[in-house]
Amino acid sequence: MYKCNFCAYYSKEKKFIEKHTKICSKKIKKNKKFYIRQSAFNKKLVIYSSKSSSSFRNLDVSFYFFNMNKSITSLLENTIKTMFFRFQVVLHVKFEKPKIQIINGKPDVTFNIIDTYFCSSMVLVMKKTDIRPKLIQSYNRVLKLFDEFVNNGSGWSLRSINRIDIQVAKYKAMRGGCSENKLPLSISKKGAIISIKNEINENKCFLWCILLSLHQPKKGSGKITSKHEKLLKNIDYSMLKYPTSLNEIHHFENVNDFSINIFSLNIFI
Known about the structure:
Shape: elongated
CATH architecture of the largest domain: 2-Layer Sandwich
CATH class of the largest domain: Alpha Beta
Order of helices and strands: EEHEEHEEEHEHEHEH
Number of strands: 10
Largest sheet: 6 strands, antiparallel
CATH topology of the largest domain: Dna Ligase, domain 1
Distance between the termini: 18 Å
Strand content: 25-35%
Structural class: alpha+beta
Helix content: 25-40%
């Protein structure tokens, strides 16, 4: 198996990965404000750092985010083309605090200087439209932490903005499916779990699981047809998208007063 040096893409064919890596490297180089600072776990965790050769002298953090936003967005949009991921914004800054001493009867001012950072929470991106709102959420989190530090009476003031890091980690979502993932024979032959077969919509397998749990089929039967759709009239599933995410399932539980347990097998993830 061959892997790209810049993202999580892989292929069994060397010629395919060579072509992909060449294109991928150009995309990274096009982003003139970022470079790969560090990576681990076969590129599943990558830290991109801003390329600024000197510290950003404008001391408005909001303006700095505005100035960097286009490049950060471009970076994340290129990433979502190859994988789901979580990302975190980390702002590295330099603070100073004046220290006044009396030397030979005259005041002498020196500065204590520290380097520190403020980081957002890790947020999940599973589609391109997630990027903008998640970035705004991350910026606001960093700004809040920054303001709390400056305004708590510590006496430190911002000297310079050193750089911004975008930490990206590959996210491998839990996946199910009525036909994509078959039950192992050792489990299916026990007859305790139903493997759903449907003739309507493959992506709605979560909904069909709920349907069969409420209207138990004959033993060993897990087939869903258009006749079963009439049985959904007493369930509110308006919040669901297909395939269904774990967050939507939590909402579904609350609205319908259901308690749903989800189990996974390691061979599927």
